TrEMBL record:
This is OLC1v1015775C1. Pfam families: zf-RVT (PF13966). It comes from Oldenlandia corymbosa var. corymbosa. It comes from the Eukaryota. Gene3D superfamilies: Endonuclease/exonuclease/phosphatase (3.60.10.10). Residues 232-314 form the Reverse transcriptase zinc-binding domain.
Length: 412
């Protein structure tokens, strides 16, 4: 408790220079790190004033009482009051422990569950070992009395929510039993490895079962195929799920310095199939009126279609490929990926440059799609190609200047 000479939130200051994130983020971070939080506060909001007049006057909350979880358990109703500052520029704080005064006395009872706590044995041993002077009976009484308080404390810290927890679990059990009595063959209660996803099951549950099925493919009898000794390990499991997608290293080229950051981001989402195309929206049960691609208005909109198969995208890609002096790009996505990875080989073209153009193309196709969807504005493939070329020229010059490195050996 005291003067921390810093605020926690912008609204804790009035007047003076505007508050910046760096002014308080360190304080916020250290509070989080130490598991501390503000004690409930009563009275004035600001605890400090620079005592100036007019526009030079600044108010701020610089003094506070910080508490941890244990404190809140023990003194749930404690409160800090900001008092009148008097002659100082800071206001004094007063903390009240209301809970202790209002507590009703109850008889002490021992709970067997305390023995489950790892702290139990230690607490009893330590307390019992402490010396008490007096007759044997007095010693025993004093030791029991002392222990009683410590065990109550242990109960408050470790078993405070036990009643709530028990009630919750009892309710869950009741629901499951009811469900089971209505439908004894319910698949939810069959073994995890045999359960089939129902049509109305949640998306998350379907995903979990999908991963389970992939894992099942790796097991023959009781042998796990992905490791040499047939035993499942996390490492071999990871390799199994990662599959042949070792192209991840190449994916990093998307983040190269030559790329415009916003292009990188959209290209990365497209590569990971995380853009909200119409087919994805539909699969998440969101209403989509027209499934068709907004660029060609012919085929359904999917990631593969939008960036690889769409006739509109094909024109843009074709023009860019010609500009770069590369071979033609394949239409199918799988082949396209392979070709992207191979096409820079043996060609007089910088690999990072190629990725920058691909990322830009992805970004602008997606942008065009959104312009058509949300603003009803259209551009031709030629306009988009020109835009990308201009942007790329600017970017290459910028990177070239910054690093003083020869740019790609192509005629821009
Ligand atoms: Zn299309």
């Amino acid at each position: 408790m005291g003067d921390f000479n810093n605020i926690l939130k912008p609204e804790e200051k009035l007047g003076g220079k505007p508050v910046l994130l760096q002014d308080f983020e360190e304080f916020q971070w250290s509070m989080e790190e130490c598991g501390l939080r503000d004690l409930t506060q009563k009275g004035k909001m600001f605890t400090w004033c620079n005592q100036r007049v007019g526009i030079e006057r600044i108010y701020a909350k610089l003094d506070r009482a910080l508490v941890n979880g244990e404190w809140i358990h023990q003194y749930a109703k404690s409160i800090a009051t900001v008092l009148i500052e008097g002659v100082s520029d800071h206001s004094p704080l007063e903390v009240q422990f209301q809970v202790q005064m209002q507590k009703r006395r109850t008889a002490f009872r021992f709970f067997n569950m305390w023995c489950l706590s790892t702290d139990f044995q230690r607490t009893v041993e330590r307390s019992w070992a402490e010396k008490v002077e007096g007759t044997c009976m007095y010693q025993l009484c004093q030791k029991l009395k002392r222990l009683k308080h410590l065990l109550k404390q242990l109960n408050r810290i470790q078993f405070a929510d036990i009643v709530e927890k028990a009630n919750r679990e009892e309710m869950q059990l009741e629901v499951m039993q009811q469900k089971l009595s209505l439908d004894p063959g319910d698949a939810d209660f069959a073994s995890f490895w045999e359960v089939e996803a129902k049509n109305d099951a949640s998306w998350q549950w379907k995903q979990i079962l999908k991963v389970r099925d992939q894992r099942k493919l790796g097991v023959v009898g009781s042998r796990w195929l992905a490791s040499s000794n047939g035993k499942y390990t996390v490492k071999s499991g990871y390799a199994w799920f990662a599959g042949n997608e070792t192209k991840f290293r190449d994916l990093q080229s998307i983040w190269s310095r030559m790329n415009v950051p916003k292009h990188s981001f959209i290209a990365w989402l497209a590569w990971k199939k995380r853009l909200w195309t119409k087919d994805r929206l539909t699969s998440m049960h969101m209403a989509v009126n027209d499934q068709r691609c907004l660029l060609c208005r012919l085929q359904p909109e999917t990631i593969e279609h939008l960036f690889f198969q769409c006739t509109f995208a094909a024109v843009v890609l074709e023009k860019l490929v010609q500009w770069l002096g590369c071979r033609k790009i394949a239409a199918s996505e799988a082949r396209w990926r392979m070709q992207i990875l191979n096409m820079w080989k043996g060609q007089k073209i910088n690999r990072r440059l190629l990725w920058a153009v691909i990322a830009a193309c992805t970004y602008h196709l997606w942008e065009e799609r959104n312009r058509r969807l949300f603003q009803q504005l259209e551009r031709s493939p030629e306009q988009i190609t020109l835009l990308i070329k201009d942007e790329m020229r600017g970017r290459f010059l910028y990177c070239h200047k910054r690093k003083n490195r020869p740019a790609a050996k192509i005629n821009l």
